[in-house]
Please model this.
Amino acid sequence: MLRLIVGAIAAFFLAACQSTQPPAPPPGQQVPGLFTPPPASSPASYRDLPGWQGAPLAASLEAFRRTCDRFSRRAWDAPLSRNAAWAGTAEDWGPACASLSTPLDDAAARRVFESLFVPVEIIDPEGKPRFTGYFEPMYEARRSPEPGFTEPVLALPSDFVANGDSPLQRLPNGTTRPYPPRAEITSNVSAPVIAWAHPSDVFFLQVQGSGRLVFPDGHTMRAAYAAHNGQPFKSVANWLIETGRITRGEGSMQGIRAWMDRASPDEVRQAMNINPRFVFFQSLPEGDAALGPNGAHNVPLTPLGSMAVDPSFHALGVPMFVQTTAPGLGGAWSGLLIAQDTGGAIKGPVRGDIYFGTGFDAGQRAGTMNAPGRLWVLLPRKVAERLYHTLGARPVAALETAPGMG
Model:
């Protein structure tokens, strides 16, 4: 999905793994940079992770093994992230990846995590932690337009010039300009058409960033994210609420779709154009039907094992423990997730978008998810020791007193 850049302060409340001050890095070893810590830190332990002992780990372990495969292909001494160099290098993560490379039951996996990883709580200095859900939709589609299937799913146009988060449009005279907003793309830009679908389905396909298209002959194709037009994301839900078209209680994906189904085509187009961001797709084979599309980490997303984060603050591939509220999962929920994706609306150090899976049921569960919560990153012991040393923090005995460790 997407990304963003920022050079801001992320507040870290440190968790701990030992009862003594960790040693300084060896002479000459560079300490990775990290975001400025708060004036005071709050040590934690696995005991402080609500629901840790009962959290299912199978999905997150499966996701983490795919991440480890990505780590193994990196330069051994390269930071996992330039923006979050505190997360360490591929070499730092090697022992943990090796220990979790074979199938383990939840109890055994929990012991490995508790022995090799240290939880570090991340605090949002603005006090706006938020967790939402997303999914891979499945929509009926056609290979040519017909009644009910009038909106094209577009691939990258030939005038699209990649330029990071600010793509350009090459004009006939050879000059370039910022790529235009949605309204101009849908009316004036010529681009290859992957498929045709219902207008509201195409709109939500763009919001989700990818999906599966099912044709009448039974063929299924993935419409995978290719690029966006560089325009800012604006909430259609907020506009519908502010203009009195829906109530605040109808501001969910389900409520917006219900409004689109009863509104006129011109009204639907007006609402869609409120969001100037436009997403282009590429056609891919369905592949493993049990897995989601590739996320920003370039590995398939795992239902309830993968999460989108803000790469301005976090390194992709890092395990994260989340406590939040998920109505679609029964209410209060805690779980281990791997940072494997990003999103245009995912901004902030404690902002996560949990991947729920594919299809209608996953969409229903994801659509009800929007709650505050808490976030811990689980870092290899060596990485956590560098954090402690850099911050001058004194960890407390955590692993020795974690439940189930005695």
Summary: The longest helix spans residues 58-72. The chain is about 25% helix and 25% strand. The radius of gyration is 22 Å. Residues 1-42, 395-406 have pLDDT under 50 and may be disordered.
